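cache lookup: miss for this entity combination. No prior model stored, computing from scratch. Input as submitted by user K.M.:
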Amino acid sequence: MSEDRTPEIVLALEIDDPALADRLAALLGSVAGLRLAAPGEAATATVVARDPRVMPADIALTQRELDVLALMAEGASNKMIARRLGISVHTVKFHVGSLLDKLDATGRTDAVAHAARRGVIEL
Amino acid sequence: MSEDRTPEIVLALEIDDPALADRLAALLGSVAGLRLAAPGEAATATVVARDPRVMPADIALTQRELDVLALMAEGASNKMIARRLGISVHTVKFHVGSLLDKLDATGRTDAVAHAARRGVIEL
DNA sequence: CGCGAAACTGGCCGGGTGGTCAGGACACCG
DNA sequence: CGGTGTCCTGACCACCCGGCCAGTTTCGCG
């Protein structure tokens, strides 16, 4: 009961690089006042590090495509996007088509999922 | 050039709770072999902690709805979901309807976006 | 044993979606 | 100047989606 005013910080590790994970584990494991979380244990904080990720140059989307993509992520229909952007539905469908192509998606739902996964958009 | 094969780990902090951030900064700042990142500096790893999160009670989705939701996030069509789950398209549409209702979404794209936002599914 | 919740199925239909073909305007670059 | 790329628009069409109606079974709970 002495000093439980410092409730021991539990740190979880989510490191892609095994070598880095080892070094961090060694470093952090010997720090007084915190300990590493057991697998599956609820942690106070998580140390994350994903290396040069699968994300080659943001897949080169044009500005207009990013506009359309953002509205798609809001759940907007082609008609809504057209109105919001001041262009015709045909043009929206054109951009959506390009998006599906570039993002390698089969539909608009798949497209926003892929985009969110690679950080192109923020959900 | 002695031992720069241990390139000093740079840690960034993304902690919601200021008190926890302070304690972690104090603890980690005095560990040899790593240092805290300056604001905006590219870090080796990031320590994240979002507290009691916006995610109370998971909005009570049934198991089947979670199944359908997961496949929706994959970009699967109703027909594909039906095949994958061994049920009819009508049933899929039934579950999708419930999903749209519970997630307060206007379409399947909106539904997976909402679900991802509140952590119901992992993108 | 009733009763509700969950899961499942069917049909119908208006509107949305994705693919395809075709075209024009503009800017940049070799 | 011709080529390339982006952006924009039009039309056509098969298919999908979401909402509506209705119905069945199975399960757990009081």
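stored under new cache key. Residues 77-79, 93, 96-97, 100, 107-108 of chain B lie near DNA strand D (CB under 10 Å from a C1').
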